[in-house]
Specification:
Membrane topology: Multi-pass membrane protein
Main location: membrane
CATH architecture of one domain: Orthogonal Bundle
Shape: globular
Organism: Actinophytocola xanthii
CATH topology of one domain: MetI-like fold
Helix content: 55-70%
CATH superfamily of one domain: MetI-like
Number of helices: 13
Order of helices and strands: EEHHHHHHHHHHHHH
Radius of gyration: 33 Å
Family: Belongs to the binding-protein-dependent transport system permease family.
Largest sheet: 2 strands, antiparallel
InterPro entries: ABC_transporter_permease, MetI-like, MetI-like_sf
Length: about 325
């Protein structure tokens, strides 16, 4: 509080209270704000050290070849000549865009994606729901659905080539035993792509199954219990609770599945070699044929760059559409 005082003229006045001195006297330093640690020297340094080998390999084997391929697409690079070759500008891109083989292979790839993506997404959700509700031997269902996914593509292709073999294959015998005519699964242009789609669905279903199973485990059980008290049945719970809450998982599954289907190569090349009459020739096989059969690396790099733009555009459009329609929780 203020203290009353009298100056030499006799007038009364007030004296302001003295400020308390900081501990340690007048010369004590005020505490400084804690310094933010640099990620390179602080707690983030161990994480960067762990990531450094992966980043180095990623730059060396992914980013580096991608940049070199983009540069190579501007030159008439050949597999039998050293160096990049003569500068071609955009001629390789113009050649690919004007090639009927490129557009037909692109359509075959899109058609394969249409045949495989919807059943893989739908069946992955259905089987995940069934496995989640199974009380006994749940581990067996998870293992059974995921096991084919870990098989190499060559093994899967050989298994299904045997199943499609006329008069000897399992599917051929099943069809003829039902009284139907035996189809030429891999030799008929009308059946070849469908046969490859069936093989791919059987092979890769386990990946989507695991993603959906993880998404189902994140949904609170209390929501189902409350809805059951309100009189909701299993179908209403799936339609009103499960499907909306799995919207993000479904978006992820669709994007990954579309990208994987667009990049199809192994099973097509092993089972049909792009036939019959190039009816199952994908874009990657077109790039393979141009680069390793025609020995024109520059033209193959241009075609692969165009295909990368297509995949990037499709993925971006789907992500934008799903984010706009995503429900607010």
């Amino acid at each position: 509080m203020a203290v009353a005082s009298t100056d030499i003229t006799g007038r009364a006045g007030t004296v302001a209270p003295a400020r308390p001195e900081p501990r340690g006297g007048r010369h004590a330093r005020t505490p400084k704000k804690p310094r933010r640690e640099n990620r390179l020297t602080g707690h983030g340094r161990p994480a960067l050290l762990f990531l450094a080998p992966f980043l180095a390999l990623y730059l060396l084997f992914i980013v580096g070849p991608a940049i070199y391929g983009l540069v190579m697409s501007l030159f008439n690079t050949s597999m039998v000549a050293p160096g990049l070759g003569e500068f071609a500008g955009l001629d390789n891109y113009a050649e690919a865009l004007s090639s009927n083989d490129f557009w037909s292979s692109l359509w075959h790839t899109i058609w394969f994606t249409i045949l495989t993506t919807p059943p893989l997404v739908a069946l992955g959700l259905v089987f995940a729901l069934l496995a989640e509700r199974a009380r006994r031997a749940r581990w067996f269902f998870r293992l059974a659905f995921f096991l084919p996914y870990v098989l190499p593509s060559a093994v899967v292709a050989l298994i299904w080539i045997w199943m499609y073999t006329p008069e000897l294959g399992l599917l051929s015998r099943a069809v003829t035993s039902l009284g139907f005519a035996e189809p030429d699964w891999l030799g008929n242009p009308d059946f070849a792509m469908v046969s490859l789609a069936i093989t791919t669905v059987w092979w890769t279903l386990g990946f989507n199954f695991v993603l959906y199973l993880a998404g189902l485990q994140e949904i609170p059980r209390e929501l189902y219990e409350a809805s059951a008290i309100d009189g909701a049945g299993p179908w209403q719970q799936i339609r009103l609770i499960t499907v909306p809450l799995l919207a993000r998982t479904t978006s992820l599954v669709v994007v990954l599945q579309v990208i994987a289907s667009l990049k199809v190569f192994d099973q097509m090349y092993i089972m049909t070699q792009g036939g019959p009459n190039f009816a199952t020739r994908s874009v990657l096989q077109y790039v393979f044929d141009v680069g390793f059969t025609d020995l024109r690396s520059g033209a193959a790099a241009a075609a692969s760059t165009l295909f990368f733009v297509v995949v990037l555009a499709v993925s971006t459009i789907w992500l934008v559409m799903t984010r706009r329609q995503e429900p607010e929780l």
